[in-house]
## 1
Amino acid sequence: MTDLNIQCRTCKCDYRVQVHHRDWVVYQASNLPIQKVFPYLSADERELIISETCGKCFELFTESK
């Protein structure tokens, strides 16, 4: 497993997301959709990888639109 230590851009909270190392390599080298590469992660964890935004902040952002 590979630990991804990600800080939310909005609230500055630190998060750790664990992914299989081979999946991380595939994700970085391909254009595959993140849900295909990491089906075992939650939507919030995948969003954190994509945008460095935690689930709570993402919800607040989408509610304010």
## 2
Amino acid sequence: MQSSPTERVLSIEEALARARQYAATGGRRLLGICGPPGGGKSTLAERIADDIGERARLGRMDGFHLAQVELARLGREDRNGAIDTFDAAGYVNTLRRLRDAAEDVVYAPEFRREIEEPIAGAVAVPRDVTLVVTEGNYLLVDHGPWRAVRRLLDEVWFVMTAEETRVRWLIERHIRYGRTPDAARARALGSDQQNAQLIDATQARADALIRVDA
């Protein structure tokens, strides 16, 4: 029987304890952390990986963002972060390699916000890592190449944040990486908000909900 929304809500401490259990069971587990832009999913994913230590690695969906030169070629440079600005098939293929755990090491890319570009081979995942945490916006999308993502993850947790708090955190992040306050707000309430609406619609597919601003 499917759990009710209330039963699916985990505190951060409960989430950490659950992740520790996954890392200790042997074999390889893949845990997804999903949510809209600015909602705190990156912070939670980092906390989980740090808490578990050497048995865990964090590989972000953002590492599969298309390079700026390719976005310009496609005419998509003004909406970085939209679902069609990622190499979804590349992400799926890397998740398959991580799940198989057949290679001595799998290298994953990492997105560097200070240069707004992905860097190949930045995250090394050795075979003996028991928990891979991956975080991103579109882990629960059920169409196109993204549909395969959910099947490759053991669980996906959706991070919930009060909308006012999420937008404030997002604006602050945009300012931190060089946008003016006006430009940061326009981005947060423009293309970022469109992305957030798409992501929020996938929440029901999550295995658990985690409120990070409580």
